[in-house]
Amino acid sequence: MHIVYVLKSSIDNNFYIGCTSDVGGRIGYHNKGKVKSTKHRRPLVLVYREDYDSIYDAFKIERYYKTAKGKSELKKKLAPSSNG
Questions:
Q1: I need a surface site. Which of 2, 46, 73, 84 has the fewest CB within 10 A?
Q2: Where do runs of H (alpha helix) occur along the chain?
Q3: How many CB atoms neighbour CB 33 within 10 A?
């Protein structure tokens, strides 16, 4: 199982998108300050995840979510439902 995950920084409210097979361990790694790009943005909270059987598919969607079009789609998925 491969997981595309989105973390939200409690400091600047920005998102970090990543891919892993151990999301719990990876979030711990981020929150311990061991990831350069998120070190100064801690604490980080998991706000979204998608599970994939294929590592290829997981990395493909991770790269897509880092594009302008992908970020727009991801923000729609993260937006609170207007259905109440």
A1: 84
A2: 23-31, 55-65, 68-78
A3: 12
Segments of 1-84 assigned E as strands: 2-9, 15-20, 44-52
Chain position carrying tokens 């979510």: 65
SS3 44: strand
Q: What are phi and psi of 47, to 5 degrees?
A: -115, -15
Correct CATH for 2-76 of 2.40.50.180, 3.40.1440.10, 3.40.228.10, 3.20.20.80: 3.40.1440.10
pLDDT score at 23: 97
Ordered strands of the 44-52 beta sheet: 15-20, 2-9, 44-52
The total of other beta-carbon atoms located within 10 Å of residue 51's CB is 11
For residue 36, give the 3-state DSSP assignment.
coil
Whether the pTM exceeds 0.85: the reply is: yes
pLDDT, residue 81, reads 61
